[in-house]
Amino acid sequence: MSAGFADRLYLPGGGPVHTLPPVCKLVAVLAFTVVVVATPREHLAAFGGYLVLLLAVAAVARVPPGFLARRLLIEVPFLAFALALPFFAHGERVDVLGLSLSAEGLWGAWNIVAKGTLGVLASLLLAATTRPHLILGALRSLGMPGILVQIAGLMLRYFEVIAAELDRMRIARESRGFQARHLGHARVVAQSAGALFIRAYERGERVHLAMLSRGYTGAMPPLGTDGERGGAVPWLIALSLPAAALAVAVAGWLPVR
Amino acid sequence: MHAPDGFIVGPIALAAGAVAVGGVAVAVPRARRQLDERAAPMAGLVAAFVFAAQMLNFPVAGGTSGHLLGGALAAILVGPYAGLLAVAIVLLVQALVFADGGLTALGVNVTTMALVTVVVAYPLFRLLVRTLPVSRASVTAAAFVSALVSVPASALAFVLLFAVGGAVDIPLGTFTAAMGGVHVLIGIGEGLITAAAVAAVVAVRPDLVYGARGLDLRAAAPLRGGEAAGAA
């Protein structure tokens, strides 16, 4: 709940990946992820190739591997799920270290871990090199309805404020000697959520009036990057990632000599 | 519960994406009609609230902790359409800006965590509020039940997607039972938090609880000091 939460994934920098137009990066990451997800799980080498590609992008973007590794923790709940699969899935059993495991389950677990991890890494690289509001601008360029972009933008802008309110409530609770220790204490924490909603709602009303008094008529004034389409060169650079991934995938299809 | 990439096969993930887009497309004009030109700031701030409320952790048992999904809470407080938009936007931003949940699984996540929770919780909440006697206790009870049910419903929707397009063939009965059982427990936590949060709002600003509109709750019970929780 610390300040700067919304920017925590963004690593300020002026590298070649940072300066690419956000819309190019967004499309590239999406296309890359689609290629990864569409790759048959038996093509083990292809997944290694994808990882090498992402690490190469990280190196060019000067995103340290340690940063990526720490943020991969977000995947842990699904790793637990994947680990359970070999024990439950149908199909023929194989013996691994004395355990009877389902071969199908092992493949399934590998499929989830490999594709999930590559997807998170690709998203992390996008988030680490692109400011959040520019990602939203890229969505606008791609044709997402303005109202949704506005909602997302206002959410990002006020999230810090709302989270800081929550933190002040926590400090107020703790300075009165309260600490949540068991489920019965959830009621007190939940009442904070109720109070937080009232504060957020009333802030929304004030924000709306402030916007009106500054001439808001239902559309936000365009940002510098809104509607940016990107030139041919940035597109070529950005799309080299999914293109390389596609090449790796196709190489996996070719018969082994 | 944020599904990562590769969990559900491509065609089913695409279909879930189409369902999610359809749900959002239905919600946008209706949220606009409800909130008129306040739609963007109000839904934006409610989305920020849902995101922040998801960070409220409470200890469950054995060192594990639970947190709110928020679909039922948002729908009860601001209505099903604005609530759906707020939760869907939270999931979109989490996937794009926080790398939480796969980009190709966004449709799956919006369908199970925003669409299903709202579509299950809100009608159930309205039904309970209409059938129970008009009182703040009824609103609290209705919030508890609808939020509780919304969590296993969301899990079962996920099981359904997994059964049709899961990357693995697993015994469906066992999987359904396990997911359902775990999520009933999670749902109890969700229900408690949602009920207490709605009760706190009803005690102070009953006019803000969209799902309880048309009920005269002021006369139903006097405001007690400790219940406002606005003191912090």
From TrEMBL, chain A:
Entry keyword set: Cell membrane, Membrane, Transmembrane, Transmembrane helix
GO cellular component, one term: ATP-binding cassette (ABC) transporter complex
Chain segments annotated as transmembrane: 20-38, 44-60, 109-129, 141-159, 232-254
Compartments (UniProt record): Cell membrane
UniProt cross-references to Pfam families, sorted A to Z: CbiQ
Residue runs in coiled coils: none
Mode of membrane association: Multi-pass membrane protein
Superkingdom of the organism of origin: Bacteria
UniProt-listed InterPro entries: ABC/ECF_trnsptr_transmembrane, ECF_CbiQ, ECF_transporter_component
The keyword Lipid biosynthesis is assigned to this record: no
Gene Ontology process terms (BP): cobalt ion transport
NCBIfam families in the record: ECF_T_CbiQ (TIGR02454)
Protein name: Cobalt/nickel transport system permease protein
Species per Swiss-Prot/TrEMBL record: Allonocardiopsis opalescens
From TrEMBL, chain B:
Transmembrane keyword on record: yes
Cellular component GO terms held in the UniProt record: plasma membrane
Compartment(s) where it occurs, according to its Swiss-Prot or TrEMBL record: Cell membrane
Record-linked Pfam families: CbiM (PF01891)
Keywords for this protein: Cell membrane, Membrane, Transmembrane, Transmembrane helix, Transport
TM annotation in the entry: 7-28, 40-60, 72-97, 103-125, 137-164, 184-204
One GO BP annotation of this record: transition metal ion transport
Membrane topology of the entry: Multi-pass membrane protein
Gene3D superfamilies referenced in this protein's UniProt entry, alphabetically: 1.10.1760.20
Name used for this protein in its record: Cobalamin biosynthesis protein CbiM
Species for this entry: Allonocardiopsis opalescens
